[in-house]
Amino acid sequence: PGKTWEGLLGAVVFAAVLGAAGAVLLRWAGVAEAPDWVWGAGLGALFACIGQAGDLVASVLKRDAGVKDAGGTVPGFGGVLDVIDSLLLAPPVAYWLLPLAAALPAS
Questions:
Q1: CA separation for the pair 2, 79 (Å, rounded)
Q2: Model confidence pLDDT, tens digit, residues 19-77
Q3: Model-wide pTM > 0.85
Q4: Which of 1, 25, 48, 89 could pair with 54 as two cysteines, CB 3.0-4.6 Å apart?
Q5: Which long-range contacts (CB under 8 A, 24 or more apart) does 28-35 make?
């Protein structure tokens, strides 16, 4: 149980740093719609949490189905779903969130 919380904290910090760096690089490259570094860090942290939620959703579905691994396609990883489960919720949230972020006033 402790490893999950440590992993989540590490993922949030790492994603926030990458999000901030990405926003700074986009601004430096002259992309007018690029968020400032605070928004980049916030979005990175948010999507790290969403990735954890996707992993938990997949785990609940597998537990309800009585399956330990979602296939054996990828040796050592348990299956394709086990590799991409963190990405399950990110596209719908991005689809909903990005138009809202674009509507915010420019900083």
A1: 25
A2: 999 999 988 998 877 778 998 899 999 999 999 998 888 888 888 888 776 666 666 66
A3: no
A4: 89
A5: 33/102, 35/101
Domain range holding 79? 2-103
When divided into structural domains, the chain yields a total of 1
Angstrom CA distances, 99 to 32, 44, 49, 105, stand at: 16, 17, 20, 12
Residue with tokens 């926003």: 23
Identify the three-state secondary structure at position 31.
Answer: coil
d(CA 101, CA 23): 14
Which tokens in the block code for residue 63? 């537990």
Q: Which amino acid is at 14?
A: F
